[in-house]
Amino acid sequence: MSHINHAFPEHSLIGTCIKLAQSTFYEALPSNVARLSPTAPDPMPLAKHVPGMLQRLSNAFDNWTYRQRMKEREAYLAQAQDIFELEDRIRQLERRPYY
Fold first, then answer.
1. pLDDT one-digit tens code per residue, 62-93
2. Are the CB atoms for 69 and 99 separated by under 8 Å?
3. How many domains does one find in the chain?
4. Angle formed at CA 41 by CA 40 and CA 47, multiple of 5 degrees
5. Is residue 44 situated within a structural domain?
6. Which domain holds residue 5?
7. CA distance linking residue 37 with residue 16, whole number of Å
8. Predicted structure pTM score
């Protein structure tokens, strides 16, 4: 790793933070991209995770309950008689989001 001079002493808090940032982001710095050796692609990519039956069932139930809550909220908002009542109902829902 190349040493970059900076105005802060190396053993100060800011100097330590600068050194830490330089070492952490060394590969991402545009000036260092040319120096890095090319990496070979992974010969065996990881298999895609296929959710099991319980996970799919849980996701389906979550989606269904979410849609039901949204239908209830929309029906509640649709009962408003005018824009002022609608705004009041929206504020009420924002105060307690689990209608």
1. 999 999 999 999 999 999 999 999 999 999 98
2. yes
3. 2
4. 150
5. no
6. 1-37
7. 27
8. 0.44
Q: What would the 3-class secondary structure string for 28-92 be?
A: CCHHHHCCCCCCCCCCCCCCCCCCCHHHHHHHHHHHHHHHHHHHHHHHHHHCCCCHHHHHHHHHH
Whether 61 is covered by a domain: the verdict is yes
Structure tokens at 99: 């209608």
Check whether residue 62 and residue 91 sit in a common domain.
yes
Residue 17, amino acid: C
Choose between 93 and 21: higher pLDDT.
Answer: 93
The pLDDT value recorded for residue 98 is 62
Residue with tokens 């802060």: 8
The answer to whether residue 45 is domain-embedded is no
Length of the chain: 99
